[in-house]
Structures are given as C-alpha cells and as structure tokens.
Amino acid sequence: MKKWIFVCVLIFGQPVTALLQAQSKASITTGIMVEKDIDVPLSGAKAILYEKGKEIANVVTKSDGIITFSLQPNNEYVIEITKENYVTKRVSINTKIPDYENQQFEIAFSILLFVPCEGLDYSVLQSPVLKVVYNDVKRDFLPDKLYDELMHSKLDQLMKKNQECIDAKFNNLVNKADRLFHEKRYAEARPVYVEASEIRPKDEYVKKQIAEIDRLLAQQKDDSKKYADFISQADKYFDNQRYPLAREWYQKALNVRPNESYPVQQIARIDSMLKKETETKTLQKTQEQTFNNLISQGDDAFFDDVCGALTAYKKALEIKPNDPVAQKKYKEAEQECNKKQAQLARQQQQQTKYQQAIRQADSLYNLKQYEKAIAAYQTAQNILPNEKYPKTKIDQINSELEKQAKATDSQYKNYIKQGDKAFDNEEYESAKAAYQQALAIKPNDSYAQSRINDIDKIVAEIKKQEAEKKANQQKYQSLISQADQAMKNAQYDKASDLYQQAMALIPSEKYPKDKLKEIDQLLAEQARQNEKNYQARIESGDKNFANKNYSAALDDYKAALTIKPGEQYPTRQIELINKIVADQQKAEAERKAKEENYRKAIAQADQLFNNQQYDDALVAYRQASNFLPEEKYPIDKIAEINKIKQQKETEANYKKAIQSADAAFGKKSYQEAKLYYQQALAIIPNDRYATEQLQKTEKAISDELKALADQKARIEAYDKAIADGDKSFTLKNYEEAKIAYQSAQAIFPDRPYPAQRIAEIDRILKEIATQKNYENLIAEADNLFQIKNYEDARSKYQKAQNLKPSENYPKQKIKEIDDLLAKMAAEQKQREELQKRYQTVIARADQLFNQGNYDQAAKEYENALTILPDEAYPKQRLSKIKEIKNLLAQEAKKPAAQPKPAEKETVLPDLKFNNKEEREKYLKELLVKYPPGITCEIYKEKYRKITRYIVIRDNEANDYRKIEYKWGVEYYRNDKPITDLYFQTQIKPREGEYFVTVEM
Question: CATH assignment of 632-699?
C-alpha cells in the first residue's frame, strides 16, 4: 500500500486504496523523494542505508530526486540523507511484522533538506525525524504516533528558527542595501543586494534593485539632474500608458542630451506602438472578414466534404483561437471526419484480413488438413459474413469428412463392442487386443485408451491382491491370538478392535463374530454404570456453573468427559467456561494495561509540565486521555497548558510590540512607533508605559508635520512614503506598508490613495487573524474529537463555523458529531429495552424449567435468543432441556424389569457357490428380479456396510459388492474378489443407462 509521508512539513497521507496484492511471501520496498522545496526535487543528495548500524547500500539522487531501497522483514534500518551545504536527516524503519503477513508493502515518503543558518543548534536532527513501524490494526507501516508527535513540535521549532534566521539575514542585507541605495552609494549597495539574492534568488524586488543600480551606474557619469527628472517623468507616463505625454517628456530629455539613445529609443518605440495600434485596427478588420469567409466555406462543405470543412474551420481558429462558434463547429467537423476516416480504415483492414484468411484456408485444404481449413474459412466468413466462397468450401469439406467417417465408424464400433464384452467377462488380454484395434482406427479415442489403462491397472491389482491374501491369513492368526490375550486381561476395547481387524481380513470366519457378541454384553453392563456416573457429574457441574463456581464446574465436566469422551454437552460447557475465564482475564489485563499506560503518561506529562516543556506535556496528556478518556485530570491539565501558552503568547506579543515601537521611536520612525504602541495597548489595555510613549510619539508626529510646512518637502516626503508603502505591500509586509501609508496620509490627509491602501491592509490583516483563530479552533476541536469529547469538540467547531460561515469542514464535523451522539443515545436506549425484555423472558423460562414444563421453557429460551442472540445462558439451558428429554424418552421406552431387546439388523448373506450351476441359477434369478441397468442397494450391519450393485447389461447379470469394515474394504464380483479399479469401471453408469439407489 503506497502513501507519502511529508517529513519536515510532517503531513501524513492516507493509504491508497487496494494497491496490496497477495504474494508468496512478504516484501517491503521504500521510496523516498528528496526535495529542496515543496514538490521541488533535489539532485545529488546521497542516501545511505544502515542495517543495525552497518552501511549496506547507498544511492545518489538524480533529477527526479527519487531513491528506493528493498528491505527485509523483521529487521531495523536507518536511512541517512545528506548533501553538502544542506542539513542531514535520518529516518528509522522497523520492519518487524507478524508471521501471517504475506503482503507487498510500499513505504513512500518525502524528505525536505534545507540550507542551515549559521549560529543555530541543529542537534535535534541527530535523532531520526521519523520512525516507521508496523501497525497491527491497519496492517500497514505507519509512523510511530507518540514519537512523531514529540518530534513534530521540535522540528517545527527548528524550521521556524531556521526560517527566522534566514529571513533576518535577508532583511538585514536588504535594509543595508536600501540605505546605501537611498544614499546614492550604488557601487556599495550592489554587492549587498547580490548577497541577498543568493539567499532568495527569486525575490523580484532585489532583482529589480540590482537592475536599477546597473542602469544608474552606467548613466551616472553623464546624467544631469534635469535629464534624470525628464526621463523619470517620461517613464512614469510610459508605465501608465500615457504615451503622448511620455513622448513629450522624452523629447524634452532629448533636447537636453541630443546624443542619448534611450529617449530616442523610447520615442521610436512610442511612435511604433501608436503606428502599430492603427495597423492593428486595420488588421483586425481584415481578419474579421477572412474569418467570416472561412466559416462560410466550412458550413457550405460540411455535408459534402466534412474533412474539407474541418480545414476551413481550423484556419478560422488560427485567426480567432477562442471563438466559441468556430470551436464548436471545428469539434463537430473533427468528430465526423474522424468517423469517416475510421470507417474507411476498418473496411480496408477487414478486406486485408479476409484475403489472408482465405489464402491460409485454401493452403490447408490443398494439404487435406480439413479441420484446420474449416476453422480458417470460418475466420474469413466472420470477417466478411456476406462472402459466399468460405461457406461453399466449408460445405464441401464437411461432405468429404462425412464420407470418410462412415467408412471407419462401423469397424470401430465392432472392436469396442468386442472389447467391452471381454472386459465384462474379465478376459483382459482379449479385451486389450480389441481396444488396441479400435485405437488403430481412431488413434486419439479417449474411451479405448482409458479401457486399456484400466486393464493394465486391474491386472497389476490382481497380482497384488493374491500376495495380500496370503499375508492376510498370517496376519489374521496373529490378530486372533492378540485379541484372545486382551480378553483374558479384560481389555475389551482393545480386544474388540483386534477381532474386528481379524474379521475385516477374513469376513467368513465365525469365531471373531462370536467373540464380538460376548464383548458387547460385557460392555453394555459397563455402559449402564458409566451413564449413572456421567449424569451425576453433569448435575454437579451444572450446579457449580449456575453458582459461577467455574473451577469446580470445570473439574466435573472434565470428569464427565473421561467417562463419555465424545459427548458434546460437557465439551461445550468446558469451552464456554474457558472462554468466560479467558474473557475475564483479558478484560482485567486490558484494564491494568490501560491504567499502567495512563499512569506512565501522566507521570511523564507532569514531569514535562513541571519543567515548563508545555508542547511535549500537551502531547503526553493527550496520550493519557486516550488511554482513560473518562479521567478529568489530563483534560484539566490540557486546558491549563493552553491557558499558560495563551498568556505567554500575550506577553511575548506585548514585548515584541514594545521592542518594535521603542526601536522605531529611537530611529524617529514615529508613525511606525505609533502603530506598535497601539498594538501593545490592544494586547494589554491601559498599560502605563505604552500610554506615555504613545503620547510622546503623537507629539513627535505633530512636530514633524509642522516641520513639513514647506510644500516641496511635503511632496517629496509623501512620494517617498507612498513608494515605501507600495514596496512593503508588494512584499506582503503589511504592517510596515500601513505605517508608510499612514505617514503619507498624515502629510496629505485629503488624498484618497493612502486611505484606500490602509483600508485594504486592515481587511487583509483581519482575514489573516480570522484565519489564524479559525485554524486554532479547528485544531482544538480535532483534538477533542479524537479523544471522543464530542460535546466540547462541537462547541469549538461551532465557534469556527461562526468565524467562517462558508467553510464546509466545521459543518461536516458538527453533523458527524450530531449523528454520533444521536446514534449513541439510540443504541443505549435500544440496549436497555432489549435487556429489559430479555430478563422478563428469561425469568418466565426459568420458572417453566423449574416446574418441569420443558417444551414451553424451550420456546421461551428460544424467544430470549431472538432478543439477544449472543447470550450463552439460553443456549446452555436449551442443551440441558434436550439432554433431559432424551433421558426421559429412553426411560419411557424401557419395559419394567425387562432386559433390553437386541436390535434387528438388515443382514445380506455372503455369496458362496458350491459349483458353476449354482452361480448360473443365482444370476438368472437376478435377471427376473431386477430391471436392465444398475440397481444399488445399501445394507448397514453392525460391524460392516455393504453396497451392492446388481448390473444387468446385454441380458447378463452380475452381483458387485463393496464391503466396508472398520479396518479395510473388500470388492467382489459374484463370489470372487476383484480389484477396486475393476469394480469402479463396472458400476459406473454408461450413457442412457438406468440407475437407482435403495437403502435397505
């Protein structure tokens, strides 16, 4: 089963459905995608596979970043992934699996390697970032949940610090370069921007600044302020597409510096663009006319030449690619043209296949391979059913084959009839010769070949039986001697087995039968005493079972089984007691295990809490709550941690805002300082320090505004503030952008642009805050849902829904919780109602049982099972009622003080003829008594079972018998022993033959 485990981002995917297939044995393959950014492969990374600390393989990634290893089950591996100038990461995989697993496992995950930042501690990466183990419930390899949760927080913190470090380094470089740039120290600013671009190669602002510096440095020697102003104004008009004004200002710049190429190029470019605009309008008009003409051509040709129409529509689309009418017409023409071309191709292909099939068929016909020729002609006819030639040739071949078949079939049947007659008369040599003659006519005839095979096996079996008969006589004498000795030693079961073995060897002997009758009389007396002892043990066991004294009940039932080993009732009761005891032991063990796991998790969580490791403590308390969800302590501690974290976050946010405000105030960035002091007051209202500093800041801003009385200075300050705001807004540094726009707004309050941008920033910041609150609520709700605290989880989901009403996820989870709560309530109510009905029925059944009304009691116990089918008690009582009724029935059949009469047997006498005339007379009588075909009669005697087959074929009768003893089977034809193989060939019904079975 394949899944992606995104390490570092730590998003664990779900198994893809149905990728596992049964294999001859389990195999494990791991696939790793090494990335330098999300979905961006990293080439040149080296992955080393360690088995118990020893390197066994290594791979270097190519352009796709993918590496694979084949792992052995029941082992421990570590995969180390490294590259120069990147961090090194490790993954632990434990492949221990159960013996019954035979799947093909695929463990796939992605690992993100990032560039480290100087000065940070990366020691956490010495441990595996992920541990993969086999999960017994999912029957798949999944991350170790507890380890993952502990590492998740540490990795997040490391990534956050790394990113903050890189961001800080980048921002410091950009700020330094910006300062140099604004001071017009371009040669010094450029290498600083280049160093920043090495950290963020795609940063547009840095690239733009480098390009701007290159342009300024190239022009710096000859540029004058007036020329630069004209060019700057012209570029602004050009960027805003106000080309006539831009041309006017470029011309002014050119008048100042006639030899400058840039204004000449821009003027030429503007003239070209204005000319192109005129030409474009003319071209559009011409193209429109051409387009309409092509559409008309396509419409006219559609029904007569649809492929020609397709060409016209295609040319029209080249003019107007997105025209919906032309697109629709093109698709319709394309479909019709494809159909027409496909139809022509199919017809040509069918004609080619037909000709090939005919050539092959004619060649086979000429070689007189008629069966293959017919198949080839039929193939040709299937390709082109209307062609007459294949059908004519097939009829011709069938006519020739029919003539040949008639000539040989009659002779073949005569040989088969001779063979069957000789086979039935046990004349095997003659039968084999006749079947061989039939095979000479039809070499592939399965019937004749199978008869020859049967004859070979029967002849071999006859020789084997003659040898066995001699050995059986010797074995018979030995068995009788052993049985007689066992009788003297009162070992009746052993003696009975030995006499039956002897009787199976020579069934006609009377001595073992007499001895078996004698043993039956002795065993009957033993059985009566055993039954009495058995019933006493069962009654004692039932009483102990009802009193839940399972140990004593188990001893009673085992003692009953030693008396009557095959009885089902004590066996079932023993199984039931073992299950009850096992369930009790299992439940107790599970309870103790949960309590122990809970205790360990709480101890670990408390220690982490006391050490102020709140993130790790939170994971441990949640783990403890999973073990014992009803315990309130871990839930209270989770709430306490969340409160502490919230307080710390508030303090940190306040401290950060004050630090930022103080720094801005120190740099005399009063608008920026004002925003941060306001943020600090929003976090801790009425804070004295923030209030006093805010008043100082507002006074400083007022003083600055007074200093900006000069209109020119105000305009320059306004333009700079707007430029800074736009730059920060583009980089999504919304707080800095807002400060800049507020500065501009303070200079010119009536200008709308700063107010618009501030409103937009406020909207964006509000959305970001809302999204953060939403995600926090969803995370808390998911945790509560996971520990089955559905009421609190629902409250959190509802709050998240109120924040973002359009989101579907909280709606779905609220509905899921409502459904779960409703289902749980309904199930509880149903269980209580069923239990109440069950107890009422059981009470009524017990009352009837105690009164001896067993039939009505049985009905009530059955009714109880319809209410709660898994309850054991009604089943036990039903078994007991059945046993009681059987005993009562046996007692009722016994005449008072009379011995038990002997059971009558349906006995079939053994066949024994004194001469040939007696045998023939017996077989003729069978012809009169039985119909043609096979009549099967089954006789069940005390020590043997006889299956008798009266076979009447061609007005001849035979008596076949299969005699089954405890120790073996014998086969007879009339009064002679035969082999199993010959017996099976004779009693098998032939086609259309009568067959009936009668149990005598």
Answer: 1.25.40
Q: How far apart are CA 307 and CA 303, in angstroms?
A: 10
Dihedral of CA 505/510/511/513: which sign?
Answer: positive
How many other C-beta atoms can be found within 10 angstroms of the C-beta atom of residue 476?
A: 18
Superfamily of domain 4-143: Immunoglobulins (2.60.40.10)
Cβ–Cβ < 8 Å for 690, 680:
yes
Per the rule left: phi > 0, alpha: psi between -120 and 50, beta: everything else, 426 is: left
Q: Which residue has the higher pLDDT, 81 or 346?
A: 81
Q: What is the pLDDT of residues 190-204, one digit of tens each?
A: 999 998 888 888 889
Q: Contact 496/524 with Cβ under 8 angstroms?
A: no
Backbone conformation region of residue 926, classed left if phi is above 0, alpha if psi is from -120 to 50, else beta: alpha
- CATH code of 406-502, in short, is 1.25.40
Handedness of CA 864, 869, 873, 879 (dihedral sign): positive
Alpha carbon distance 457, 976 (integer Å): 18
pLDDT recorded at residue 200: 84
Average pLDDT over residues 255-259: 78
Tell me the pLDDT tens digit for each residue of 267-325.
988 888 888 877 777 787 887 888 888 888 888 877 778 788 888 888 888 888 888 88
Contact partners, residue 52, CB within 8 Å, separation at least 6: 75, 76
Contacts of 998 by beta carbon, 8 Å cutoff, 6+ apart = 935, 936, 937, 938
Characterize the bridge pairing of strands 933-940 and 995-999.
parallel
What average pLDDT score do residues 553-572 get? 84
351-372: per-residue pLDDT in tens? 888 888 888 889 888 887 888 8
* Long-range pairs, 236-243, Cβ under 8 A, ≥24: 238/266, 238/270, 243/270, 243/273, 243/274
- Residue range 834-847, pLDDT digits in tens: 888 888 888 888 88
Q: Does pLDDT of 6 surpass 70?
A: no
pLDDT average, residue stretch 551-556: 88
Residue 267 vs residues 224, 234, 258, 270, 369: alpha-carbon distances, Å: 20, 10, 13, 5, 91
What value does the mean pLDDT take over residues 552-578? 85
Question: Which tokens sit at 559?
Answer: 């003692």
Select the CATH number that applies to the domain covering 179-282 from these four: 1.25.40, 1.20.1250, 1.20.5, 1.20.120. 1.25.40
Give yes or no for a contact between 972 and 911, defined as CB atoms under 8 angstroms apart.
yes
Cβ proximity of 193 and 213 under 8 Å: yes
How sure is the predictor about 12, in pLDDT bands with cuts at 50, 70 and 90? very low
Virtual CA dihedral for 358, 363, 367, 373, nearest 10 degrees? -20
Instruction: Name 781's Cβ contacts closer than 8 Å, sequence gap at least 6.
Output: 793, 794, 796, 797, 800, 810, 813
pLDDT computed for residue 900 by the predictor: 40
pTM value surpassing 0.70: no
Kindly state the tokens that stand for 737. 């952008």
- Radius of gyration of the chain measured on its C-alpha atoms: 50
pLDDT in tens, 506-528: 777 888 888 888 888 787 777 77
Q: Which are the contacts of 219, defined by CB distance < 8 A and separation ≥ 6?
A: none
Q: Using CA atoms, how far apart are residues 90 and 48, in angstroms rounded to an integer?
A: 9
Q: Which two tokens stand for residue 229?
A: 């102003």
Q: Is the pLDDT of residue 41 over 90?
A: yes
For helices 511-546 and 568-610, the axis angle rounded to 10 degrees is: 40
At 221, give phi and psi (nearest 5°).
-65, -40
Ramachandran area for residue 804 (φ above 0: left; ψ -120 to 50: alpha; else beta) = beta
Residue 563: per-residue pLDDT = 84
Nearest in space to 256 (alpha carbons), one of 227, 286, 293, 294 = 227
Buried b (16+ CB within 10 A) or exposed e, 721-746: bbebbebbbeeeebebbbbbbbbbbb
